[in-house]
Specification:
The chain is an alpha/beta fold. The chain is built from 9 helices and 15 strands.
């Protein structure tokens, strides 16, 4: 299956149906902290690294886990590891392909590379084969940059900051996945899951300015319903890092006023969660879990 390069190809592609993953992997925020800056959100107005309230972070993480369980998904947890303060962002280290395979990421920053083997161990221990990317792929940050379309065997892939085009081409050409590359152009939205959230097979939440013009056009013309989050709101609240658990219940970060109203107007059931401690590292709901089959 190809890398889909034009709108025409995308519209005519015979996608097969895809059953969304029903299991979730989370990493306990045992050693969660902000000790370096690898995205613009990780410093405050004065350029200082923020202070993390560990108790609050754990409380917010537990609330998120409880909400996911309440909505009927099984949550697996791996402990956080000393020296890996960003490991709680469990979307980034891998991508679930099907019930037998996951693809391991190649993290961009030295600081995060050592997180990946803990995910490899988890999957190997659960009978899921963890595949390594070839040498020519230098960067791939898993489900942070690769979003499954709802109910369709189609993968939307962000590239430009944390994932290179080679990775996208590899997923399409070698692994037989139908992928659409989307170019990210604003470093505040360094992962695709910071600027795009697929709610169901027809509906997307996004902030257009995060994408190149060509990518904006592809998204805009493919989805029958596009819900736009204003640039400032998307940047300040990480509103697009929401998660549509089942095409109906949507978990969103607290304080995303425009998004909340728009989702309610479109009849989604909205669950607001406070992830303020995690926003300090540039992450929120979607990237604090890995959905897998
Ligand atoms: N500090 C982490 C980083 O910059 C945050 C990752 C959040 N993950 C995400 N998929 N948006 O790598």
């Amino acid at each position: 299956m190809p890398v889909i390069k034009t709108l025409e190809e995308l519209k005519n592609y015979p996608f097969s149906p895809y059953d969304g993953p029903r299991k979730v992997l989370m990493v306990k925020p045992d050693y969660y902290n902000v000790t370096y800056k690898i995205n613009p959100h990780m410093v405050d107005g004065e350029g200082q690294l923020p202070i993390i309230d560990e108790k609050r972070a754990l409380f917010q993480w537990e609330k998120l886990k409880a909400k996911i369980e309440e909505l009927g998904l099984k949550v697996f947890v791996i402990p956080g590891q000393e020296g890996f303060p960003d490991m709680v962002f469990a979307a980034n280290q891998s991508l679930s392909v099907d019930s037998r395979h996951i693809i391991l990421s190649k993290m961009t920053h030295e600081e995060r590379k050592g997180e990946v083997p803990f995910f490899e161990d988890f999957f190997e221990n659960h009978g899921i084969e963890a595949k390594h990317l070839p040498d020519e792929v230098e960067q791939f940050e898993g489900t942070g940059d690769a979003l499954w379309h709802f109910g369709m065997d189609l993968l939307w892939c962000g590239h430009g900051f944390r994932t290179d085009l080679k990775a996208v081409e590899h997923l399409g050409d070698t692994l037989g996945l139908a992928v659409v590359p989307l170019k990210l152009i604003d470093e505040n939205f360094y992962h695709l899951d910071t600027c795009m959230c697929i709610l169901d097979s027809k509906t997307v939440v996004w902030t257009p300015k995060a994408f190149s013009e060509e990518s904006q056009e592809i998204i805009d013309s493919f989805f029958p319903v596009t819900i736009e989050v204003p640039y400032e709101e998307a940047k300040e609240t990480l509103a697009c890092n929401s998660w549509s658990v089942d095409g109906h219940n949507v978990l969103i970060p607290q304080g995303t006023l425009t998004l909340k109203e728009k989702l309610e107007n479109h009849n989604f059931t909205v669950h607001e969660l406070d992830t303020s401690e995690f926003k300090k590292a540039g992450g929120s709901i979607f990237c604090m879990k890995l959905a897998f089959s």
